[in-house]
Amino acid sequence: MSSQKQYISILFLVLFLGTIESQISKEFQFIHDQLQDKLEDGPHMSMFQKWIDNLVELYEIVTDSDDYKRKSRISHEKSGALRSGEGTEAEIFEKIRKLEERKKYKKMLDNKQFSNNPSENQKIYEIYLEEFKRQVKNDNIDLVPVHIFETPRTEKHFAAKSGHRVLQEAELQRNVIKKLVEPYPTQCYNSGKLVNQTQRYYECTKQDEPNSEKFRVTLETYNFFQNHTRHYQCTTYLKETPVCVCPKGYYEYQCALQTQTKCFVKITSPAFYKGCKGEDSPAYMYSIPGFDPCFPLNFSEPQEIKYQLICQGQDDTGLIDVTRENVGYAYRDVVKAPQYDAFHYIATNPETKFSIMNAESMKVQFTFQDWKWLSQTTKFGDDVNDPLLLTGQSEGSLMIDFSKLEQSDATGDSYYVVGGRAYFEADVLGLYVTSFTSKGFFDKLGYVEPLADDNKDLILALEIAIPLAVVIIGGIIAYCCCVQKKRKMPIHDD
């Protein structure tokens, strides 16, 4: 009886210590070991042992002890994310960051938004490409599994003996049979034209199922069934189907989505493209238009910068031809392409063939870089919606106030104008628009480049040598004075 009271007293002590945050896990473990020794031969050893183990684990969780962290990491490495190939903790956080970033850009794409940052627009474009591929041709949706067909061995043997060609699919024991379901429009958007095309249809019926309905299949499946005529009966015929022919700049089976446009800002005034004569130097590159000091501007007042937009449709997938009208979806087994009347665009560049069907808006932006704080920039921009300007048939202009850059530099908070030059990058921003970046320097009128000093190295050497010589000579003089003074001192004999 006394031993049971002792055990109960120790248990209450354990519970009390478990509620005190100042007690460390080593003290708790010591009590656990003492209890284990006392209960080792008792009849209730297993029950008490389990109870104490749970209390120890609970204490470690509550106090977040180092031992608990170590055990958790070992368990995590054995069966958690690290073992499953997600990588280290830093790599996992990086994946989470990229996932959140992707959600952000996907939301912007869905909401038809774009960023003032060209690099972010490029990431939105990468997500757009994934959506584009699914909308132009999507076998994951078009090919729907209907049943599994097990190839009979006897029929395979018969086909081989009869000399018929046995396809690779027929060698498999189990074949997933898929029906073909393509989307057909009843109306078209964005000035698309609803017309007919002619396709060859392949339809089959399963023989060993009563009341089996016909289902459309691909040409590959139709050829496969030719070796299994006892189980499938197939027919083929021509059929007119409605489709949407999309104008340049649009796609999808209803022409509901817009293709991507790639643009470039060509600065016409100052006429950087003309350049001027001069030899390349560490300060100026005459061989690169825009990097030469050929067209100085008065930075004390706003300047009108003229430009021309060079744009073209873009398709990195190769699924459609952006230079012409297209059926917005890649249909199978087309025998006769659709015939349609010519489209009427609101603007077309006869040289680049870039056309605009509907009114659009883009933004031209000049970004100036601060060389003191590289994360700091100053931007000047303007919205553009003139069809002739968007197709590159007229010039646009933008007022840039260089005095703002110099005023910022005067406070010491930035270095926008360095060596009489301001570096810029020009981009075109917009929905479904990416840009080649135009870059260069605007030069300040009246700035004179400091002349290089031919004796610069000699002056630097003298600046170092003269003070050093003075120190050495001074040391020698001080040493000589001390020696001479010591010699003049009288000598006393004790």
State the major sheet.
6 strands, mixed
Uncertain segments are 17-28, 77-84, 154-172
Alpha-carbon Rg, integer? 41 Å
Separate helix tally: 12
Average the pLDDT over all residues and give the rounded result. Answer: 78
CATH-level-2 architecture of the domain at 262-320 and 341-444: Sandwich
Provide the structure class: alpha+beta
Q: Judging from the principal axes of the Cα atoms, what is the shape?
A: flat
Secondary structure: number of strands: 21
Distance between the termini: 100 Å
Broad CATH class of the domain at 262-320 and 341-444? Mainly Beta
Q: Can you give the helix content as a percent range?
A: 25-40%
Signal peptide: 1-22
Transmembrane segments: 458-482
Keywords: Membrane, Signal, Transmembrane, Transmembrane helix
How would you describe what is shown here?
This protein is α+β, with helices and mostly antiparallel strands and 494 residues long. Among the domains are: 78 residues, no CATH class; 163 residues, Immunoglobulin-like, CATH 2.60.40. 35% of the residues lie in helices and 26% in strands. Strands 9, 15, 16, 18, 19 and 21 form a 6-stranded mixed sheet that branches. Strands 3, 4, 5, 11 and 12 form a 5-stranded antiparallel sheet that branches. Strand 15 and strand 16 form a beta hairpin. Helix 5 packs across helix 6. 19% of the residues are buried.
